[in-house]
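hiii so um. not sure if this is the right channel but i have a protein structure encoded as tokens and i wanna go backwards to a sequence. like what aa goes where. can anyone help
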């Protein structure tokens, strides 16, 4: 029942984001476009991905060993949507808008299915590539002396850049804290034997 409600919630979020009014409002500002619409689409995909039946997950596990294929897909899709040209084109090419929605929804679903399969090393490799890429992209947006996206103002670009840097640093610190917390629990469990 919980999976089904997650599926319906994810589909509801997707339907709301696809409506012309909310979509136009989110895409009118670079901060709302990248920092609200993208995470909401990925979040909808996460909800849909958690609702995937177990038999389908087992079928996918054959090509998603340790979650590597799914996390690679997540990295590639997110890298593509951080490119300034992609942000410009999605606003004027209707079929690219559909690709954005589908790819970010698929990204969330792949993350939901692949993260639990990934061990500590795979998760570290994934985050060790994604978070620095996000920080460098943020630095590029924040430090560029010219507008990189024709559709957005330089001030919006700089705000997005600072937000990407902040998010990548906070995510890295959070993951490292969890890593060391898990390591200390393992150490304590081994020494108490």
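sure thing!! here u go:
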């Amino acid at each position: 029942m919980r999976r089904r409600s997650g599926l319906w919630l994810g589909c509801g979020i997707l339907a709301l984001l696809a409506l012309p009014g909310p979509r136009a409002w989110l895409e009118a500002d670079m901060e709302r476009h990248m920092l609200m619409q993208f995470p909401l689409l990925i979040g909808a995909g996460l909800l849909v991905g958690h609702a995937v039946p177990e038999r389908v997950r087992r079928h996918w596990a054959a090509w998603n060993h340790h979650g590597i294929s799914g996390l690679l897909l997540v990295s590639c899709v997110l890298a593509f949507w951080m490119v300034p040209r992609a942000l410009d084109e999605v606003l004027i090419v209707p079929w690219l808008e559909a690709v954005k929605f589908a790819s970010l929804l698929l990204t969330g679903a792949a993350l939901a299915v692949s993260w639990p399969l990934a061990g500590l090393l795979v998760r570290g490799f994934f985050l060790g590539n994604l978070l620095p890429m996000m920080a460098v992209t943020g630095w590029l947006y924040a430090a560029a002396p010219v507008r990189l996206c024709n559709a957005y103002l330089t001030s919006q670009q700089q705000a997005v850049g600072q937000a990407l840097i902040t998010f990548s640093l906070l995510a890295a610190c959070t993951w490292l804290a969890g890593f060391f917390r898990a390591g200390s629990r393992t150490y304590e469990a081994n020494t108490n034997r």
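oh and The longest helix spans residues 154-191.
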